[in-house]
């Protein structure tokens, strides 16, 4: 069975007979054997967590409860971070290749777009290294592309993002396949960390977060028919269980009753690398993870000063920087606060840009241009 290939014509007939809401088509996955397709997954619930089947039951129960719930909602009927006021806050689709590293891709996709939203800058050039997160930080826990230690868990990935940090893609580009950590010797000076994250298990809360704060990371059960997805709203019709997979949820549609997801199988899958999956399907909404904030360390250059703020508390001074937002001036001592505030005030008054060095999101150094 593991070496059987997906019979696309049989699947199309089944979709037609079941009045399916999605379309199947030949792609790079439909010619693979079942065992080869499984290499593109990578989520297995952690010890003590609900199994894939239990997650499916939880998602269906949650969706059923959501449908009968009464009361007003605060979120829009549809939402997609690829088009918010004509702006796209979603970073490019990537390809995990034949390696069970989907958790790293889902976590990074969620963090990248969240950072763009926090900055209010859809064009922010941000690209984190999935290789560093999976091969180095996941590797420190013994995680591999496949086998007994194949794949990873979202909580562990986000814990590493919070406690250790992840370097840019340019410092350690991703290639699929088990490998020793290839991060540069000075990688610790390059990391960006998240401040915290949390899980959401209620569909209404998921939509509220999506429509106001940013995308979410989600995992679900993959059946063999999913590999042939081309368009429409996926709902499982046929095929054996392949395994678990994690993606980034970038929006939803109450009109179509679905979540909108960014996959990590390249742009040849689905609709340019994206797909839609029905509410309550395959455990997709049993639990999702949100990134609360991003802790930044490093230089930000050529910024306009747009506002200054302080109150009566000692050394409690903030500056609003173009494409960066409000950031606190280092409160280490009075001289630092006064000197940096003077530089910012002068730059604002004379419409000059500044270069700013952040350490854990705190402004430590400023150069006026």
Automatic annotation (TrEMBL):
Family annotation (Pfam families) = Peptidase_C1
Q: Does the keyword Nucleotide-binding apply?
A: no
Taxonomically, which superkingdom? Bacteria
Q: Keywords for this entry?
A: Disulfide bond
Record has Disulfide bond as a keyword: yes
Q: Where is the Peptidase C1A papain C-terminal domain?
A: 75-292
Give the family this protein belongs to, as stated in its UniProt record.
Answer: Belongs to the peptidase C1 family.
PANTHER family listed in its UniProt record: CYSTEINE PROTEASE FAMILY C1-RELATED
The protein's name is Peptidase C1
Can you name the source organism? Kaistella gelatinilytica
